[in-house]
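Translate structure to sequence.
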């Protein structure tokens, strides 16, 4: 116990330092001792590894530092910093991936005059995410939550002169606002029923459908679950480093991480857990189906992110939050490597993103192509690569649970489709001759290759490194042989089907109805055409009737016209006709006298 006291102090100190170091790169003044954003993130990552290694080795419990900001009669507003195995692991992964993305941005954005501002935006985005990760208070988590949302809007809209970038950024912020309603609902419930926003002080026996609904709504908005997933493929309008950071270890997994943190309360509500299970399974299947019919390289990878987010939500619904965190860890480096490889292809092909116009990239960019293939194989769940250690257990846990058989079939189908669209992506980008002749020769430079190699290596070894820790957290299910091999069989079946279909798919044919339906899964017309069109039409009509035709018209032009018309009639009636005036006066006087006479006579 005495030995753990200095270790606990070291864990907390280095954790806080790893966040504070990031602020050094945001200063305006630069001296010979100043650090670039890339070196600052690298230093922060190295500091974060100290508490991560210590907490993993000694399995230390969570440590919390509290600072009371405001004391009310029944509620205390507290800022907290907490460290645990979960938060330290997530912290190190986020910093490692951001370091790689920062270095890649030095090559990708070197011709952009605002590249320094771009890196500062990435740093602010990372700081907001770290606040979210290390918070033990729901109100502090909400601050990081909103910071991530604001910075994602700025980063997606980096190419602000593009109409598509503007609409995609607005779409992302709109869907995230819907999720914010859920987290505000959860904050209100905790304040009124628990009188605290500190997670460790909440009653773990609490069972509230309203609280669970708020948390699931927040997670569905931020982690792009079914019906709220449409913003995520559109977010590909931002620069590729932004896509890599948003879709790997930060923003999109924030919703899942929230549910993991609040799992002690969530597990008491069976309807909430069932909702997570159904929502995750449907999201995974629909995203995989949409990826099969997609030709945009970045959107294929984005839809694969959706599919994996569905698996994470499915793991939470099956009462396995640690497996969800494990899959977040293995998926992060894999997805970041895929995006950076895709960015290299697109950048060298002069912003061409259609995989049908690529080809023979293995000869032009051999290292990048090898890393893309490695990351794709990892994503499929090939044995002994990282995702094999996290994807297979999630499906195996579903097989041993009382999950509906249709959900199991959907999960296995999504696994098979993951292999199919990954093979399809490799086939189109690597094989045959190039279908897009570049103007300049291809060249792989260190700032382009080094971060991709680091991420590819991590995507290979991350699973085996973390397996021992995860095994302590959750017992491995005992399954019959065929059930144990079911995920592997589904993966091989998906590969086989796609290889057989490639020769057929290369023949030009009109799009089938099935192709149209699956393609629309990533872009529902009812959400993006019919609903916005009718809501805008109704709003315009109401605004026109009430504002333009009623208030503005009656109080403005119509009122002035009426006053002017009345004044004009009055003025035009005064024409200087003395006889008319005298006769009118005399007639009026006579009528008054006659009326008065008869009144008194009566």
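Result:
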């Amino acid at each position: 116990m005495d030995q753990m006291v200095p270790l606990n102090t070291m864990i907390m100190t280095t954790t806080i330092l790893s966040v504070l170091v990031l602020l050094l790169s945001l200063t305006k003044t630069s001296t010979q001792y100043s650090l670039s954003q890339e070196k600052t993130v690298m230093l922060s990552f190295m500091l974060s590894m100290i508490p991560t290694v210590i907490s993993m080795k000694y399995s230390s419990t969570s440590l919390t530092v509290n600072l009371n900001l405001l004391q009310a009669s029944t509620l205390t507003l507290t800022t907290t910093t907490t460290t645990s195995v979960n938060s330290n692991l997530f912290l190190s992964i986020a910093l490692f991936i951001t370091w790689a993305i920062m270095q890649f941005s030095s090559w990708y954005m070197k011709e952009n005059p605002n590249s320094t501002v771009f890196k500062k935006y990435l740093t602010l985005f990372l700081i907001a995410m770290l606040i979210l990760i290390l918070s033990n208070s729901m109100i502090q988590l909400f601050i990081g939550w909103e910071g991530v949302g604001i910075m994602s809007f700025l980063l997606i809209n980096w190419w602000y002169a593009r109409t598509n970038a503007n609409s995609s950024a607005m779409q992302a912020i709109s869907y995230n606002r819907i999720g914010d309603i859920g987290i505000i609902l959860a904050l209100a419930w905790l304040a009124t029923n628990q009188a605290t926003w500190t997670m460790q002080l909440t009653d773990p026996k609490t069972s509230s459908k309203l609280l669970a609904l708020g948390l699931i709504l927040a997670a569905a908005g931020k982690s792009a679950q079914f019906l709220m997933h449409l913003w995520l493929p559109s977010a590909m309008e931002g620069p590729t480093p932004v896509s890599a950071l948003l879709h790997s270890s930060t923003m999109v997994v924030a919703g899942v991480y929230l549910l993991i943190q609040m799992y002690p309360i969530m597990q008491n509500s069976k309807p909430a857990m069932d909702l997570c299970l159904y929502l995750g399974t449907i999201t995974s299947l629909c995203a995989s189906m949409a990826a099969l019919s997609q030709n945009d390289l970045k959107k294929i990878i984005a839809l694969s992110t959706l599919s994996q987010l569905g698996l994470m939500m499915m793991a939470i619904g099956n009462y396995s939050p640690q497996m969800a965190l494990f899959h977040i860890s293995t998926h992060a480096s894999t997805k970041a490597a895929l995006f950076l490889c895709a960015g290299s292809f697109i950048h060298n092909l002069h912003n061409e993103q259609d995989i049908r116009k690529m080809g023979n990239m293995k000869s032009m960019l051999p290292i990048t192509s090898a890393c893309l293939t490695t990351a794709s194989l990892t994503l499929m769940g090939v044995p002994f690569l990282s995702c094999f250690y996290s994807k297979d257990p999630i499906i195996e846990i579903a097989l041993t649970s009382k999950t509906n058989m249709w959900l199991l079939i959907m999960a296995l189908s999504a696994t098979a489709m993951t292999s199919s669209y990954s093979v399809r992506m490799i086939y189109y980008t690597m094989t045959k001759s190039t279908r897009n002749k570049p103007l300049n020769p291809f060249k792989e430079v260190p700032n382009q290759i080094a971060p991709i190699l680091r991420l590819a290596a991590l995507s290979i070894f991350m699973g085996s490194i973390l397996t021992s820790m995860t095994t302590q957290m959750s017992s491995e299910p005992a399954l019959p042989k065929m059930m144990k091999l079911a995920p592997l069989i589904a993966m091989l079946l998906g590969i086989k089907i796609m290889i057989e279909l490639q020769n057929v798919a290369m023949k030009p044919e009109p799009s089938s109805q099935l192709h149209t339906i699956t393609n629309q899964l990533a872009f529902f017309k009812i959400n993006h055409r019919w609903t916005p069109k009718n809501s805008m039409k109704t709003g315009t009509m109401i605004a026109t009737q009430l504002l333009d035709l009623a208030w503005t018209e009656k109080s403005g032009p119509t009122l002035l016209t009426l006053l002017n018309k009345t004044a004009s009639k009055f003025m035009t009636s005064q024409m200087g006709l003395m006889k008319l005036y005298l006769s009118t006066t005399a007639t009026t006087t006579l009528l008054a006298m006659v009326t008065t006479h008869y009144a008194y006579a009566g």
